[in-house]
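**User:**
Everyone, produce one record:

**Assistant:**
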Amino acid sequence: MPANLTPQYLVAEKAFQEARTTEEKIRCLEEMLRLIPKHKGTDHLQGDLKRKLSKLRQKSREESTKPRKSFSFKVRKEGAGQVALAGVPNTGKSSLVNALTNAEPEVGIYPYTTRVPQAAMMPYKDLKIQLIDLPPISEEHEEHWVIDLLKAADAVLLVVDMKADPLSQLEFTCRHLQEKRLWPKSAQNLPEDKRPVAAVFRPMLIVCNKVDSAGEKEDFELFHQLCEADYPIIAVSAQTGRGMEELRQALFEILGIIRVYSKTPGHKADLDEPYVLPKGSTVMDFAETVHREFAERMKFARIWSENKYDGQMVNREEPLSDGDILELHQ
């Protein structure tokens, strides 16, 4: 029986042949298995792909326990989410991190000031978001681990300098990331034949830095009109503080998270440390986050929310919103 492999599968196969790292090969094989037609004619091929995938996963586990021959970095995630900054040299990424977190990364007017990843915590309301400042994106000089850290982050901040051809900067940065198989999350919604193969998808936010005067503000308005990106764009100035609060809000939103607070029956709600959950979470998701055994014994819950009356009884599948207070009953 003929395999009748689809064009999308053949694209994934080509990507596998061109893949250089073990992780890229694993993603390609996973995509090939997802796309391959499921019938008797492909049984042997499916088995071969699964064997290759198993060997590569084993190799990946072994590589993770061996000392690396080449220098690399990993940044342990902390806080409500991790956002990595990407951009060409001198866009002001370090200044932005400093303005948002009160950290003190090395800042200079010459290229490649940042040589290692710099992690700092950005306060937002009653939680903290981790920002990772990285060496710049460049064809002339780029550490291999920069892309690895961008892919590992929960979201990516694309920083451009409004004083120096921001459109060209953005186009170069996006093209470079896409060549390395890092795409905006919106690309997941493309038709199957146009969706990038074996790619990592992350929420992205464009930050136009150095909007320090009325002239740069006008330039930003023009840039916004010309920019065809289908993800958020915000104007800021790390020097004057313009747009910093709006940027904090935008970073919280692109992470796709909500804050939910717990309340013990007969006591006031604990508003000091919220539970952080993905958007779309339910009462049951919250209960399992608090404690799995508690969730199994839960009979009902009461909710305090802007959209409901105080103490309203809700079922396990009730969707939650940012700022909700929940009282769980066993």
